[in-house]
Amino acid sequence: MNNILILGIDGYIGWPLAMHLASIGHRVSGIDNFARRRNVRSVGSASAIPIADMDERIEVFKRQHGKNITFYEGDILDYEFLADVMKKEHPRTIIHLAEQPSAPFSMIDRPHAVYTQHNNVEGTLNVLYAMKEIVPEAHLVKLGTMGEYGTPNLEIPEGFFEVEYKGRRDVLPFPRQPGSLYHLSKVHDSANCLFACRVWGLCITDIMQGVVYGTRTREITHERLATRFDFDESFGTVINRYCAQAVIGHSLTSYGRGTQRRGFIDLVDSIQCLTIATENPASKGQYRVFNQLDEVYSIMQLARYVADAAKKIGLDVKIDCLPNPRVEKEEHYYSVQHEHLKNLGFKPTRKITETLDIMLKDLLQYRQRIIEKRDAILPKTRWMGEIVSVQPNMPTGVTA
Ligand SMILES: NC(=O)c1ccc[n+]([C@@H]2O[C@H](COP(=O)([O-])OP(=O)(O)OC[C@H]3O[C@@H](n4cnc5c(N)ncnc54)[C@H](O)[C@@H]3O)[C@@H](O)[C@H]2O)c1
To answer: 187-234 pLDDT, tens per residue?
Structure first.
């Protein structure tokens, strides 16, 4: 049994991960400040699938699965709070998901960019210091993103590559060329994590994760145990937006020509990989990078998969191309090494097409909730040009 502290336990991945780790016998505690719930509200949206509050989640989980999860409400930017929890729990593994995870949200305007980098970079620095001072032997599993690498015209290795320059060779971090200020916050985190291993001897697995999709995991056995499903332009990833559009009869809107290629992974497999990383820790002083994805798809190919799955349940949807609000290459090479997790036993659970069938069926029940927030789906935030500012309900730390 491992003693695991999950930072960001109320999130899309954090909650089902906590249930999974607890159900297989680990002792699980977690921290969250509910920023994700507030931030989604601030862009005029809501989770399509209703989610219970944390007390209810824990209570229903205990009733259904007979296991306990301990929750601490608070902000990891508050160092005293974080250090107190670390002293109390003394975790052997810390899984750090507690960041602002949306690229468009970070690109809305200066306050949102500052909020994102302050929350993510300072939060991670606090975690590194708390580990150094309180649990220096613990293993940190830190969530980065495949977006840190950008789309180089080379095969993307797992973190490091061998370079020859002017007759000399070295193994160096692979260059990062992120496409948003959110992705850049993760690059800063990676540099800080590498430093903490090199200089303080901490042990860290930095996960470059692809885009996660799905509504179901084995432990979601009751509707009050569901994880969130966002579909707005900021927090809804491309598959989520397509699925939400399909169930309300809106055309699936691809950005630009749709030829952008990215890595994707099912929620059950993200959890499988994080469990593998947790159960096979890095060694003392080691900074290890895993590329965590299953398959690479173009976003147009995904639109076709969603349209096909929708047809099977009687929904006829068109695919449209919108002017791309982002600054990104549309035609590009994309090849990613992702062997480390496979070598440790990762096997994909099912095909994306099966998961899409499940997602659409789940979402159909909440069609009305998506219709009510449909204005939040289409992109308003542009990487360049006109800046559209958001709403009344700004998240903590952001001033309009
Ligand atoms: N979901 C994806 O497709 C995806 C892909 C690649 C990487 N990631 C990364 O995985 C991690 C989890 O992603 P997610 O989709 O579950 O995001 P999420 O927003 O649902 O979860 C993050 C949780 O952390 C909490 N949080 C944020 N800042 C905090 C703070 N300062 N103190 C305490 N709690 C805080 C939020 O309230 C939220 O519940 C993130 O770091 C994200 O960048 C996600």
So the answer is: 999 999 999 999 999 999 999 999 999 999 999 999 999 999 999 999
> Does ligand 1 have an atom closer than 6 angstroms to the CB of 102?
no
Contact criterion met (CB below 8 Å) for 256 and 324 = yes
Q: Which of the listed residues 32, 73, 336, 398 should we mutate to test ligand 1's pocket, taking the one with most ligand atoms within 8 A of CB?
A: 32
The residue among 329 and 396 whose pLDDT is bigger is 329
- What would you report as the CA-atom Rg of the chain, rounded to the nearest whole angstrom? 20
Question: Is 166 a known active-site residue?
Answer: no
State yes or no: pLDDT of 395 exceeds 70: no
The verdict on the CB of residue 274 being under 6 Å from ligand 1 is: no
For the chain, give the mean pLDDT. Answer: 95
Q: Whose CA is nearest to atom 15 of ligand 1?
A: 12
In the three-class reduction of DSSP (H, G, I as helix; E, B as strand; rest coil), residue 374 is classed as: helix
Nearest CA to 211 out of 293, 274, 105 is that of 293
Question: What pLDDT shows up at residue 391?
Answer: 47
pTM of the model: 0.95
CATH of domain 3-376: 3.40.50.720
Task: Name the band, by pLDDT with cuts 50, 70 and 90, for residue 169.
Answer: very high
Q: Where are the domains of the chain?
A: 3-376
| pLDDT cut 70: percent of the chain above it | 96
Q: Which helix (H) or strand (E) holds 95?
A: strand 93-96
Residue nearest to atom 40 of ligand 1 (CA): 97
Confidence of residue 141 (pLDDT cuts 50, 70, 90): very high
Q: Check if 124 has its Cβ closer than 6 Å to any atom of ligand 1.
A: no
Answer yes or no: is the C-beta of 95 below 6 A from any ligand 1 atom. no
Tell me, using a 6 A CB cutoff, whether residue 226 lines ligand 1: no
Instruction: Cite the DSSP H helix spans in 288-398.
Output: 299-312, 340-343, 352-364, 367-372
**What six digits make up the tokens of 64?**
């259904």
| Cβ–ligand 1 contact at 36 (below 6 Å) | yes
CA of 268 to the centre of ligand 1 (A): 16
Point out the ligand 1 atom lying closest to the alpha carbon of residue 213: 3
Residue 346 CA to residue 277 CA, distance in Å, equals 10
Closest ligand 1 atom number to CA of residue 75: 32
Does residue 72 carry a catalytic annotation?
Answer: no
Assess whether 88 carries a catalytic annotation: no
